[in-house]
Amino acid sequence: MFADRAKIYVKSGKGGDGHVSFRREKYVPAGGPDGGDGGRGGDVIFQVDEGLNTLIDFRHIHRYKAEDGEAGGKKNCRGKDGKDIIIKVPPGTVIKEAESGQIISDMSGENQRIVLLKGGKGGNGNQHYATSTMQAPKYAQPGQPARELELLLELKVIADVGLVGFPNVGKSTFLSRVTNARPKIANYHFTTLNPNLGVVDLDGNSGFVIADIPGLIEGASEGIGLGHEFLRHIERTKLIIHLVDAAGVEGRDPIEDIYAINRELEAYNPDIAKRPQVIAANKMDVLPPGPDRDHVIQLIRDEFEPSGISVYPISAVSGEGVRELLYKVRGMLDELGHETVVFEQEYFPEQAVPGNSNDPFTVTFDQESGEYVAEGPRIEKMLGYTNLESEKGFQFFQGFLKDIGVLEQLEALGIQDGDTVRMYGLSFEYYK
């Protein structure tokens, strides 16, 4: 089964929490802090595997998570780093952020391996917070949180040339003649359900990769038939061979067919419609040499060659005209350059702030202790990230509490100067 789209969830590892402990040894009555640091969380890594050509494995496994870092231990023991998770994908896989559809990475060309999400940094143990005025700190830094994303994977095959045309114009026959591909061929619409790739070898010249894009009919760009599912595979191609049934075996007008397919390309992606084209007027073996055959070819040439599109009469069955067409295509590719089309990054995961800026918090008054209590995931994280021993760090933390509305709620509860505010084991005196 061919699969070229998949939606998956990935999550890096959380950093291990720093540890709170103190030396407890004989003859050392006042041992200092010896809490170790937490280990780093594992990264989410994507890597190209040349042996893969489909995303079928992602149909069965949808969630991928790196290992969390271990918490620090006593006696300055550092927690173990979490293991990275390596996700292997076929060349040509485009990784997108699922909600926006923006591209994070295109696993093509030289881009063979990326760290998509970094694991959280381990938290510092309490040994880091000892000062001349606080020799027994009873808190440590939590590990940084994991990062998570929902991704859309799309396989856009890497081919130099896209082969397009209506069903039954002879695309599969043409591909099997000019390349090493062996597609299944039958006289049914949509027989070819996979985008077939083949390598064209030319005597005395470098070859190129050609992709037969199946299921293209009128309305394909709107999802009719199979066209919408496969049009993405010609997004990388540098030029297009437009195969048409010039003999009109099924009673179709070849000129109107060319315009119809081009309209679908334009509707799907205008950039694709602007790619250079060459028309292969196929099934010449059906028309005997003579005025009728010459007239059909001339009509197509008169229609398209003024706009710079060359027309080559061929027979995919007999091989007539195929060699000339292929050398024309090779020459056009040489003019266009040899670099693989790689899509630019649009979404940058490292700029997304972990955690939700709207994470809830609570501010209450504890009657038993006579203290105000502020709690919430953002407050806990910020306590872990901030060095409260420094003046700037403490000012930053105060500004944070004001920005998210904690100070406003404390004042609404009637807090006065000198009252105590407790946050996750730490106590502060309030002054306006």
Keyword list:
single chain; 432 residues; alpha/beta; six-stranded mixed β-sheet; five-stranded mixed β-sheet; 9 helices; 18 strands
Description:
It is a single chain. This protein has 432 residues and is of the alpha/beta class. It has 9 helices and 18 strands. It has a 6-stranded mixed sheet, sandwiched between helices. Strands 3-1-8-5-6 form a 5-stranded mixed sheet, with no helix packed on it. Strands 15-16-17-18 form a 4-stranded mixed sheet. Mean pLDDT is 81; it is low at 183-192.
Task: Give the spatial strand order of the biggest sheet.
Answer: 10-11-9-12-13-14
Reported for the largest beta sheet, the result is: 6 strands, mixed
Mean pLDDT over the full residue set: 81
- How much strand content do the residues show? 15-25%
Radius of gyration: 32 Å
Assembly status: single chain
Find the count of extended strands (DSSP E, 2+ residues).
Answer: 18
**Helix content estimate:** 10-25%
Class by helix and strand content?
A: alpha/beta
What is the first-to-last residue Cα distance? 67 Å
Note the run of SSEs as H and E: EEEEEEEEEHEEHEHHEHEHEEHHHEE
